[in-house]
Amino acid sequence: MSAPPYSRARQVRTALAASCVTLLFAATGCSLGEPDPDPAGEPPNLPTPSASTGTGDREVVATVLAKGLQVPWGIAFLPDGGALVTERDSGRILQVGPESNSDGLKVTEVQTIDEVAAGGEGGLLGIAVSPEFAQDRTAFVYYTAERDNRIARFRLGEKPTPILTGIPKAGIHNGGGLAFGPDGHLYAATGDAGETDQSQDAEQLGGKILRITPDGEPAPGNPFPDSPVWSLGHRNVQGITWAGEKMYAVEFGQNTWDEINQISKGKNYGWPEVEGRGGDEKYVDPIVQWSTDEASCSGLAAVERTLATACLRGQRLWLVELTETGTVLGQPHALLTEQYGRLRAIAAAPDGSLWVGTSNHDGRGRPAAEDDRLLRLVFSGGGAGRS
Question: Considering the entire predicted model, what is its pTM?
């Protein structure tokens, strides 16, 4: 989502602060103090950066935007620069920012989705904001209900209306990624719900990436007649994003390889026949693969030609640089390794920074006093947070 015109002054302040980040690592005379108010008198609303780290030529300054959350899962930005954030287990939708207070950005509960039946890896998962939100005030959520996973649309504060039901649910592998693509259609990532045969069956919704209209109908141009299925052969996709017109997804492997795949219409990504690169022409090989202990990544975001994925078991952020044709350039870089625990949600903000959510209250982490936290990351050397 592009930033609205009235946020340009804020973007200028952010770009100046990000430029100072680069110098921060080269000289001690530059600091990231509060920027001056913009000409309209709007007070700055970004908290003071709290930590910096890096690998190779990539340095990152991390700011804690919000704390005391409970398993934040999805992040979707609003036209005013604030964001809607889902909590998996509580079923709450929170608005974070754009207003600030002494603790960071102001966190306000928007509503609770009463139909959520949280359990295991299921609950209130992905969230997407209508491309016409300024006019229609509409958002979309992916959540686990009593008998299935489903996608619903709603105006903020109102009861959601399911638009696609029957996505298989289980204690594991519920998928949950939800985002609008550059074509204006809604994409959803589903898991195999522990039933591996579903992934290769084009008539089943499990183990797929789906493409639908805002009314829940199969989108025009889908590869299978009258079907929402866009790609198949997935195990458990939670993060989807676009770098330019190319779509990417991050996928949990079983015991050996976790993957990032470039997603194309009607293609088969091999699960359960293949995990990682298999060399079989019937299936698409991942562009990147990692061992599960250093990855197990959930969220995925893109800033220009950089993919960033937030990892749970790996407790780190992986950065993957892309060429103009969408292939991988050089080696991935790991950042924030074991500094904030398990990382799950990630989204590219309108100002070019990245917002990342920890997931230390999900039953598999070791929560610190401030967990779960929402972080803002600004990078040196180009990329996120740079003008």
Answer: 0.87
